Hints:
Blueprint: E1 2-3, E2 6-7, E3 15-19, H1 28-40, E4 45-50, H2 53-56, H3 77-84, H4 88-101, E5 104-109, H5 112-120, E6 126-128, H6 136-143, E7 149-152, H7 158-169, E8 175-180, H8 194-203, E9 206-211, H9 217-224, E10 229-233, H10 251-268, E11 288-291, E12 306-309, H11 320-323
Amino acid sequence: xxxxxxxIGSNNPTYIIAEMSANHAGSLDxxxxxxxxxxxxxxxxxxxxxxxxxxxxxxxxxxYFHIDNGTWEGENLYHLxxxxxxxWEWQAELKSLADKxxxxxxxxxxxxTAVDFLEEIGMSFYxxxxxxxxxxxxxxxxxxxxxxxxxxxxxxxxxxxxxxVSTIKKYHNDLILLKCSSAYPAITDQMNLSxxxxxxxxxxxxxxxxxxxxxxxxxxxxxxxxxxxxxxxxCLSRGIxxxxxxxxxxxxxxxxxxxxIRACELAKGKVSYGPxxxxxxxxxxxxxxxxxxxxxxxEMFTEENIRVVRPAYGMxxxxxxxxxxxxxxxxxxxxxxxxxxMVK
Length: 344
């Protein structure tokens, strides 16, 4: 996948997304501060969500529209989204700010009107949320814009993910799939990050993690396992209460995660055999063949007068048996590293 001049995928640095979601808490000033803070914390991208309560659900108060457990227990869907949405009139201004300070911005649309709006303000790539993985008409409409797509797969069965991927591939869009645990917060021991690797093999695309767990352990492990993209909810402070604050990262936590991810990438490195530069000075402490008793010229080499020991200034240990039974070409003192020209 290519976003602007940035290549995203295998053999490239991890693309790190800060998800603003509802963390602006209804304040445009907070939203702008989040953009600045995400850039400062090392994010490559800031993500918005583009919906209204009316475009994502219905204003209905019967039992089907009530949340009975979890972070938002007791909420009505319509009223929750009224509090959580990012006003559309902010989004062009926020995108201009992101462009100005040099951080990418994209958004998750939740219906066709949101896609049309994002097209109008020049959004260059899209996110499909986990809960919309099964909204094939929406996915097809997004794919028809022929722009890169990052798609979360939380709760998705193989068949559901396959349907969504097939829909996108009809339009030949660049695609990255994100493993996601759609719980808020997610429990680390139920994240099943091995599924991310399997998705890469099964669907033939690069993969990453949309991480709702607390802390950065899941994200760093995902990078070690081959994630090309990491997405985490980002807030100025969990003390600024909003529907997403309880499971979002504060700026210093996010910066620490970015540092750990970059360190993980360095540790992963590339396929390399033989001594690394940092090991070169220690190669001398490997083993080699040394004279362990004084030996006269013409005397036979035996297990009593030569040994394989550290350090590594003599012949390699693999020649030890070849040398036994041969004779010395000259007098050799105890502690001499045995060389080929010393063996007759």
